[in-house]
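Data deposition worksheet. Section B asks for the primary sequence of the deposited chain exactly as it was used as input, without tags or linkers unless they were present during the calculation. Section C holds the resulting structure in token form. Section D is free text for depositor observations; keep each observation to a single sentence. Incomplete worksheets are returned to the depositor.
Section A, Depositor: J.P.
Section B:
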Amino acid sequence: MFFRRHDLVADRLGALGLNPFPAQRLSQAGTLLDLPAGTRLCTEGERGTQAFLLLEGRAEVHLADRTLEVGPGAVIGELATVDVTRPRNATVEAVEPIALLVFDAGTFRSLAEDPELRPLLLPERAAA
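Section C:
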């Protein structure tokens, strides 16, 4: 008998509107983390070595002129991860317990080249 392992992370991504194949690809490429409220994901001015895909919970993005709140489906740290000459432009902290996928820079850049994943991972550059 053959059993196929069920991918719970891909299911979470599917609930965010992602098709099964891209959801599974992201799930397999990232590392799932559950973090408590108050965890800092990145700090303005740092070099971007990781990008994050928020699966559950909320985080605050502190920019120079405003603070934004993001939730499930938000991609965090993508611009500094794709452009190694660009430092992080915001500090991001969890405002409640969060679940997210973490991608190292090389993996994230590779995933962002996929035309099906690009609009999710790099919405500003999807048309480029």
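Section D:
The chain has one domain: 8-119.
Residues 8-119 form a domain with the Jelly Rolls fold (CATH 2.60.120.10).
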